[in-house]
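User: Teach me something about this protein's shape.
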Amino acid sequence: MERKSFPEDFLWGTATAAYQIEGADFEEGKGPSIWTDFSHRQGRVFSGHNGDIACNHYYRCSEDISLMRELGVNAYRFSVSWPRVLPAGSGRINRKGLDFYSKLVDELLESRITPLVTLYHWDLPLSLQEKIGGWESRDIVNYFGDYASVVFEALGDRAKLWITLNEPFCSSHLSYLWGEHAPGKKDPRLSFIVAHNLLLSHGEGVRRFRETVKNGKIGLSNVSSHAEAISGSQEDLFAAKLRDQFVNGWFFLPPVSGEYPQELFERLDSYGIAPEILPGDMDLISTPLDFWGVNYYTRSIVRAEESELLGYSEVSGDLRKTEMGWEIFPKGLERFLIKAHAEYGNRPIYITENGMAARDRPVNGRVEDLERIAYLRDHIQAAGRALESGVDLRGYFVWSLLDNFEWAHGYSKRFGLIYVDFSDGQRRLRKDSYEFYRRFLNY
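Assistant: First, the predicted structure itself:
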């Protein structure tokens, strides 16, 4: 399958996130985020790594756009750092921060690269965590709305494609159920409160967008995983359904139906940890959005486990795995796209993240990441098959442009098309996968 197999206006891009690449974390008026705090706590991040400098993209943004232009992409997904724009989370605007993103948008457009702007990719202003408990408080909805309005007003005249939140599953459950991400708590009740408040904030963000940005589109990017039962037993099939509702349905269904998945909600309610739903909540959450962002990496295989909170446990599969330990299963992308098209409101879909971590090492100035090339090729083929099946697929974004700060894994996991030497001034080196994608895009 070649590029010409896809629609002419299909968006081909790469994706990044602010805290993972920007650096300049204490500079140019930026306030600290919950990840600034979390990554400086002993034992929280691999080898004590942090995002203080990261890829130094804040100062090397023009160079990175030049690399994208050479690559041949026609779109770029990036996130805005809330504490770079509003250092205290609200109130005073940091003009230097807004100017950085304004310049980024202008340079992208000059390079004929469409910006896809994500408002929130996990770097909540630390001041809001300390002041109100961050996403644990319903007050966060208005704070997020006010922040969104500031960014929409500054960039919405030029940037027309937007995402409210990246992977609210991670911002809630990785952060509050398992404690692996900032702020690092383990409280199932709080985890689902946070998930609900994130969806409320998404709805508020969409509402503010409609008031501010003309002729634009806005969506939500979710973790998207294909769930399989380990056997055909009724118990295991139901466990797979619960897993699908937990990871996928909880965040895909309410924005289009105004309802949470019934079976999982009832199970949570029996444990006393279902979120409280107030009048008007589901109306706000289901404020009509324009498209879905699908972030796909792997599948999950589950078996029934009644003693577990969610009613299932995950089983390791026997396929090849990435450096993250995730199975490589391109067919799951095709299956999920078809499922999303049929079950989640028949909205246009962008694959907003897809990629793999590999054990990349330069040898004589070259990174031969053949596994990543195969991964990208096979997933692009899967996306093409979904398109042929009738899925309204509009774009594909590789995660990621650059090797970066991979959250709790620090710099130990490399997802980039471009190798970053963090021991040598963040020197950039095009990997073989970069050349593969460039050839694909320019064929």
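Now, about its shape. DSSP finds 16 helices and eleven strands in the chain. The chain has one domain: 3-442. If you'd like, I can walk through any region in more detail.
User: That's plenty for now, thanks!
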